[in-house]
Design goal:
The chain is built from no helices and 25 strands. By secondary structure, it is mostly beta strands. A 5-stranded mixed β-sheet has the order 14-21-20-16-17, with no helix packed on it. It has a 4-stranded antiparallel β-sheet with strand order 5-12-7-10, with no helix packed on it. The chain has a 4-stranded antiparallel β-sheet with strand order 6-11-8-9, with no helix packed on it. β16 and β17 form a beta hairpin. The protein is elongated and about 90 Å long. The relative contact order is 0.12.
Length: 320
């Protein structure tokens, strides 16, 4: 009987009990009369564990370049339905870090429930809008240009009802603007207001609820005093939260719409032919227009016998 030992890191395995399988002659290079004994399983199971990331406690560790680190987060029934924020703080100058989160099993770079939000950053966040009771697994990986590893801090925390950040941070009082508002424990039917002195407060005239952590709100800034405004959010039940110095109103600013055809139309044959085209548009100005009318110009193209193309406008049809 031959005895061999193998010592190797155990990676990409969720917490639990497992049997060990051993196979011999896996390439079938040995001539045998009986190959039924080439596979065997251990009599006892081994317990595999994953480091725990406690909720509410900061964990400090070292992240080598291009190395996967796994953690598990245990969510008790008392925290079901709460909102959780995961923060990875690493090399903010030279780091490019990633985070992936999955409920009930290990995540990978392509299989996950939640992922980091920044493309290239040493600091990353993941927000889980509504927690389920059970185990979440976290994958952390990254690189730094300053050496072969970096010191990182990980924190999982439960969020209260709050506004965390606003995009954009400023706009002109020559029109209206739509803000992306990120926070926690949002709910449909909320009202948002830029709090000004005396009668200079501005209530959002339209609110689009995305989920418990994000809404979009449109404010009409026309005629309002320039300055720095707090942003408040109020639930239908009366609960309110405020983010100070959230938004800057500036003087002037008018709507500006820029368009860019990403794919030009390729019409078919015949009077009733259809075509498909893709356009990209954006508003780089400090305010936005309420409507975005698009106008298409249809032209007929004729080629004479000398091969010189001539184009003549036939119709102009507005599209809104």
């Amino acid at each position: 009987m031959l005895e061999h030992e193998l010592t190797a890191p155990l990676t990409k395995v969720a917490a639990g009990d497992f049997y060990i399988l051993v196979r011999t002659d896996i390439l079938n290079n040995i001539l045998e009369s009986d190959e039924s004994n080439n596979l065997a399983a251990s009599e006892n199971r081994i317990h595999a564990n994953v480091k725990i990331l406690p909720i509410g406690e900061t964990v400090q560790t070292t992240l080598p370049n291009s190395t996967d680190l796994y953690y598990r987060i245990e969510v008790p029934s008392t925290l079901q339905g709460e909102t959780m924020l995961l923060t990875l703080s690493g090399d903010t100058l030279n780091g490019a870090n990633e985070m992936y989160l999955r409920f009930g099993d290990l995540p990978s770079l392509v299989l996950f429930d939640f992922a980091h939000g920044e493309a290239v950053s040493g600091r990353q966040e993941i927000i889980v809008p509504e927690l389920a009771t059970g185990t979440y697994y976290l994958l952390v990986r990254g690189n730094t240009r300053n050496g072969s590893q970096q010191n990182i801090r990980l924190l999982a925390e439960i969020l209260v009802f709050q506004i965390r950040k606003v995009q954009a941070a400023k706009g002109g009082n020559g029109g209206q603007i739509t803000l992306r508002i990120d926070g926690s424990k949002f709910e449909p039917g909320m009202t948002f207001r830029l709090e000004g002195s005396n009668s200079n407060s501005i209530t959002a005239n339209a609110v689009w609820y995305v989920d418990r952590t994000r809404v979009f709100a449109t404010f009409d800034l026309r005629g309002h005093t320039p300055g720095l405004y707090p942003l408040s959010a109020r639930k239908t039940g009366g609960a309110m939260t405020t983010l100070n110095n959230a938004f800057q109103i500036e003087s002037g600013g008018s709507p500006l719409l820029l368009t860019n055809p990403l794919r030009r139309p390729i019409p078919g044959r015949g009077k009733s032919s259809r075509f498909r085209s893709t356009f990209q548009w954006g508003q780089p100005g400090s305010s936005e227009s309420k409507r975005h009318p698009l106008q298409f110009r249809r032209s007929a193209h004729r080629v004479d016998h000398s091969g010189i193309g001539r184009t003549k406008d036939r119709t102009r049809a507005p599209f809104c």
